[in-house]
Amino acid sequence: ILNVEQSPQSLHVQEGDSTNFTCSFPSSNFYALHWYRWETAKSPEALFVMTLNGDEKKKGRISATLNTKEGYSYLYIKGSQPEDSATYLCATRGFNNAGNMLTFGGGTRLMVKP
Amino acid sequence: EAQVTQNPRYLITVTGKKLTVTCSQNMNHEYMSWYRQDPGLGLRQIYYSMNVEVTDKGDVPEGYKVSRKEKRNFPLILESPSPNQTSLYFCASRLAGTEQFFGPGTRLTVL
């Protein structure tokens, strides 16, 4: 079982601020990392899937980087807006069970104040 | 519209009364999974399936069964529900190597 940790647990920022948070995971047995955005009363929505060391992905104002050697991924939000308020989840897949088991971190709850 | 659907969305039941939560996807995905979400514990995988008739245990399979007789359906069965199975359940599906799509969730309360 992979231990996936996210920090901080929660974050309050002002509209317009840029922010970032971290997902840490054991670097051994790594296969892929997923980031999800989860709004209250909705289901998690996929943001990125990353597999290679040094991967960088971008979707609008949100981007993510991956360092598989040291076991971390950063998610960045540029110019936060109130609609970015959500819980951001990361999840990793390892080579055990043919990479089919996803282990989730506890999430970072972001609140953007107007 | 490509989607994962779950039914029911809300269910209140009593201890020991067998129930099934259905999950269906229309994207021809091979992989399907069930998760439960509990406060402070995050999303935990219950069971997953790589294809028809191929299922395997996740992190917390005790008290649950699944079946995958058709590619599109992956029902979650609680033979004898107990109060510790009160939770929010998500079904999800994906193609190999791609992002996962989640269903809308089923909130289950076992009294």
Biggest interface pair, counts: A-B, 23 and 24 residues
Q: What is the mean pLDDT of chain B?
A: 93
Total count of helical runs of at least 4 residues of chain A: 0
Q: What share of residues are in beta strands of chain A?
A: over 45%
Oligomer: heterodimer
Order of helices and strands of chain B: EEEEEEEEEEE
Q: How many strands, which pairing sense, and closed or not: the largest β-sheet of chain B?
A: 7 strands, mixed
Give a count of the beta strands of chain B, DSSP E runs of length 2 or more: 11
* Number of helical segments with 4 or more residues of chain B: 0
Largest sheet of chain A, in brief, is: 6 strands, mixed
Count all strands of chain A and give the number.
11
Structural class of chain B: mainly beta
Outline type of chain A: globular
Q: Please identify the structural class of chain A as seen in this structure.
A: mainly beta
List SSEs of chain A in N-to-C order.
EEEEEEEEEEE
Rg of chain A, Å, rounded? 14 Å
Mean pLDDT across all residues of chain A, rounded?
91
The percent range for helix content of chain B is under 10%
User: What is the helix fraction of residues of chain A, given as a range?
Assistant: under 10%
Low-confidence stretches of chain B: none
Report on this model:
The complex is a heterodimer of chains A (114) and B (111). In chain A, a hairpin with a 7-residue loop joins strand 9 and strand 10. The mean pLDDT of chain A is 91. Chain A is built from no helices and eleven strands. Chain A is globular and about 45 Å long. Chain A has strands spanning 5-7, 10-14, 19-24, 30-38, 45-50, 56-59, 62-67, 72-77, 86-94, 102-104, 108-113. The termini of chain A are far apart. By secondary structure, chain A is mostly beta strands. Chain B is an all-beta fold and 111 residues long. Chain B is 0% helix and 51% strand. Chain B has no helices and eleven strands. In chain B, strand 4 and strand 5 (42-51) form a beta hairpin. Chain B is globular, with a radius of gyration of 13 Å. Chain B starts with a strand and ends with a strand. The mean pLDDT of chain B is 93.
